[in-house]
Amino acid sequence: MKVLIVEDNASMRTLLVTLLGGQGYTVVGQLENGNTLIEDIRRLQPTIVCLDYQLPGRNGLELLKDINADFPEIDVVFMTGSEDADIEKRAADSGASGFLRKPFGQKQILDELRQVCEVRQQADRAAQPAPEANGAKRNGTRPTAVIVDDNSSIRLVLKGVLSELGMHIVAQAGNGEEAVRAAQIHRPRVLFLDVNMPVLSGLDALPRIREVSPETAVVMVTGDTSRQLVQQAAGLGARGYIVKPVRPAYVESFLKKLLNPGS
């Protein structure tokens, strides 16, 4: 895996270069700010970006959105020493594949990178076309799903994880209005619905989805697991939630309970 480090602290950059290089990662570049980040990504072609939040000039959240817009296939591990209670949720909703709060230990970052790599490998495997005959047969027996998120990187990763777990993705959408239309057209077994989206939010779209496709189990996808949000979503008919960043083991456990209750 090729890693680009974006961190204004020289000691932290040195630590990451030494640690990751010793674990088989190739560090393709080090940046102390994000002023030329998009151009550097095009030039260096990393697979993972370790991105600090508090950088000179534009902050990490703004840069994260740019990365996901232009390079949804690249995973971003978001790093911060901020004590802002909402920063992890905001980073997850913006498409971060991993999150580290400083100070962190060597094991923490290696474990986080390992999980990020495993999720991406699942997404890449799921993106490989299946033989037509076998694929058609499998699609006829697999539970159907629609994925709705305004972040293309999150859609890509979630599609990979769900496909690996045996679901057939029949549609994807980027806002709540599109989610309602997709539910009405496809009537999927499960619809994975982001909370914070433009045009129509997930919570506003949820009752309309339930109306046009009452048999569909709607699962919220969010970085916010506050009691208020969970209760509000449940009151509107959601069957549960998946936490961002997406982790395959959690999604698998959740789907087993959702699709096979009592088993």
Terminal CA distance: 39 Å
Helix content: 40-55%
Return the structural class: alpha/beta
> What is Rg?
19 Å
Q: Any low-confidence stretches, pLDDT <50, length ≥5?
A: 132-137
The CATH H-level superfamily of the largest domain is: Response regulator
List keywords for this structure.
single chain; five-stranded parallel beta sheet; 263 residues; 2 domains; alpha/beta; Rossmann fold
Can you put this structure into words, describing what you see?
The N and C termini lie far apart (39 Å). The chain is built from eleven helices and ten strands. The chain folds into two domains: 2-125, Response regulator (Rossmann fold, 3-Layer(aba) Sandwich); 131-259, Response regulator (Rossmann fold). 40% of the residues are buried. The strands form two sheets. A five-stranded parallel β-sheet has the order 2-1-3-4-5, sandwiched between helices. It has a five-stranded parallel β-sheet with strand order 7-6-8-9-10, sandwiched between helices. α7 (152-164) links the parallel β6 (144-148) and β7 (168-173). α5 packs across α7 (152-164) and α8 packs parallel to α9 (202-212). 48% of the residues lie in helices and 19% in strands. The chain has helices at residues 10-22, 37-44, 60-70, 87-93, 106-127, 132-141, 152-164, 176-186, 202-212, 227-235, 248-259; strands at 2-6, 26-31, 48-52, 75-80, 98-101, 144-148, 168-173, 190-194, 217-222, 241-243. With 263 residues, the chain is α/β, with parallel strands linked by helices.
